[in-house]
Structures are given as structure tokens and as C-alpha cells.
Amino acid sequence: MSSVSPALPTRIAGADAAHRLADVRAAADAVRALIGAGPEAVADTAIILGTGLGALGRAIAAEHTVDYAAIPGFPLPTVESHAGRLIVGTLGGKRVMAMQGRFHRYEGYSLQQVTFPVRVLRALGASTLVVSNACGGMREDWAAGDLMLIRDHINLLGDNPLVGANDEALGPRFPDLSEAYDTALAGLARGIAAARGITLREGVYVAVAGPNLETRAEYRMLRTIGADVVGMSTVPEVIVARHGGMRVLGLSIITDMCIPETLEPASLEKILAVAAKAEPHLTTLVRGVVEAL
């Protein structure tokens, strides 16, 4: 297994108004050079690992790991539970690329920066994106540690990664999101969960800017508009993946309960502990989906 870690990090300079095809290709070419890959697809499936879910990366038989700092244009994660590595290897007998750590608007990045890696994964050949996250649950009949299949989402980030000039080579000006999450992939996940005895909820994920957790009144509002869980990621990446023609499967681990009437203080330590306990089920589910692709 090779591992690439440079002496000096590189970043996108400033908040770009739009993704540029030349930048995407430069980053993809850099990854190919670092792992010794040719022009063919590096992997058909890409996985984004969310807060506290880095251990899923250990289930991948890694052939190469590349620090984000070695990839031109990649931001650097500032959240302690996000390692900041791109893993290339196999899972369930299939080649995959996995981002061990993602980026958030609350870190100070633009949504174009947050989603730039998705463009690069697409340029490296990925046609399917499996995106995972830790989130807060707002359904009284659900519990911390449950997995949720994302059926749909609501964007309350106050921004969109597609704002700015559009390059038709990357995707259409007005992409349709009536099926943001692929129904066939969702069906696979349901079947695998049922066969393995894994409880899999289904619902709507709402993305907010953070980094603070919400007030009781905000949780009431989010439930009123139709959200079942709340988090600070995922939606920008899904928008860009669908813009680029990728199929998307979204999975959440409910790490804390956000019921206004019984709300208790949450901490990152508790959230990470719940994520770690639930992660084996997430790993089983993702591996099963990848095997079936």
C-alpha cells in the first residue's frame, strides 16, 4: 500500500464563483500520477465518510492513501474527527475511492470548495456516490444509534454550490433534483438491511449551516417543514453529484436526539461514541450495496 503526504499543503485560493473544468482535471491528473493510475476509471464507486465515521475506511482494503494536501485544489479539514485522506482500494470485492473526512461551510469554506472533491471523484471515473453523515434525530419514535436512509433533503444552508457560471461539460445549468437519491440504490439498501436484521429508518435530511446545534424553537420549525433529521453537510455534495450525473445513496447515523420537549445538551464526545457504536451496521450496509453494484 502506498501513502502520499507532501511537506506543504495546497488549497483552493479564495472562494471560487464556480467550478472550472481545468481545475478539476488538474486535481484528477494529480491523483492518477500519485497512485500510478492510467486514464481508465480509478473506481466506479466513491464514498464520503462523515463525522465519526472514519473507521468505515478501515474496512476498505487500501491500495493507496493520499493526503488531501497533496491534491491541488482540495481544502484541508479542520474538524478533529475528519482525517483528510483519499483512500483507493477494494470493498466487497469492488474498487472504491473513499474520502476519509469532508468539509463544511462552518469551517469557512465556500460551497464550491466544499464540493470540489466530488467533481474530482467524478473525473476519476466514479458514477455512484455513497454519502454518509452523523445527524440529529427529530422523530420521537426513533433512537440514537439508528441508521436512516435519506429519501430526500432540504437545503437551509443559505447558498448553493452551483451558483456562478455554469460549465456544460460538468453538468446542466438547471439540474433536476426530483430524484436526488437513486431509487434503485435505496432498494438495494433496504434489502440488505432486512436480510442482515439492521433497523433502517427512512426520512428527510435538512442541512443547516452550524456550527452551533439548534435551539428548541429551531427544532420545532425544522420538524414543521418536514425534516426528520438535521445535519451540517451532505446536501451540497449531493447537489454537485447529481449535477454531474452521478447516482447517489445517502445514509445517516442518528447520533443524538433533538426532541424539543425533552432536549438535553449534546457534546461531540457523545456524538462520536454513538457513531462508533453504530458504525459496524453502516459498514455492513455499505459493503453489501457495493458488492451488489
Give an overview in words.
The protein is an alpha/beta fold and 293 residues long. The protein has one domain: Nucleoside phosphorylase domain (Rossmann fold, 3-Layer(aba) Sandwich). Helices cover 29% and strands 25% of the residues. The protein has six helices and ten strands, in the order βαββββαββαβαβαβα. Strands 6-9-8-7-10 form a five-stranded mixed beta barrel. β4 and β5 form a beta hairpin. Residues 5-15 have low confidence and may be disordered.
Write the layout of secondary structure elements.
Blueprint (H helix, E strand, L loop, with lengths): L1 E3 L16 H15 L9 E5 L11 E7 L17 E7 L2 E7 L10 H13 L4 E10 L9 E10 L26 H14 L3 E9 L7 H9 L4 E3 L3 H9 L3 E11 L10 H25 L1
Parallel strand pairs: 1-3, 2-5, 2-6, 6-10, 7-8, 8-9
Antiparallel strand pairs: 3-4, 4-5, 6-9, 7-10
Helix pairs in contact: 1-2, 2-5, 3-6
Summarize the structure.
By secondary structure, the protein is α/β, with parallel strands linked by helices. The chain has helices spanning 21-35, 111-123, 183-196, 216-224, 235-243, 268-292; strands at residues 2-4, 45-49, 61-67, 85-91, 94-100, 128-137, 147-156, 200-208, 229-231, 247-257.
Please describe the structure with a list of short key phrases separated by commas or semicolons:
293 residues, five-stranded mixed β-barrel, Rossmann fold, 10 strands, alpha/beta
Number of domains: 1
- At the first level of CATH, the class is Alpha Beta
User: What's the alpha carbon Rg, rounded to whole Å?
Assistant: 18 Å
**Shape from CA axes?**
globular
As residue ranges, the low-confidence spans are 5-15
Average residue pLDDT: 91
Number of helices: 6
Structural class comes to: alpha/beta
Largest sheet features: 5 strands, mixed, barrel
CATH superfamily: Nucleoside phosphorylase domain
At CATH level 3, the topology is: Rossmann fold
CATH architecture: 3-Layer(aba) Sandwich
Percent strand equals 15-25%
Distance between the termini: 25 Å
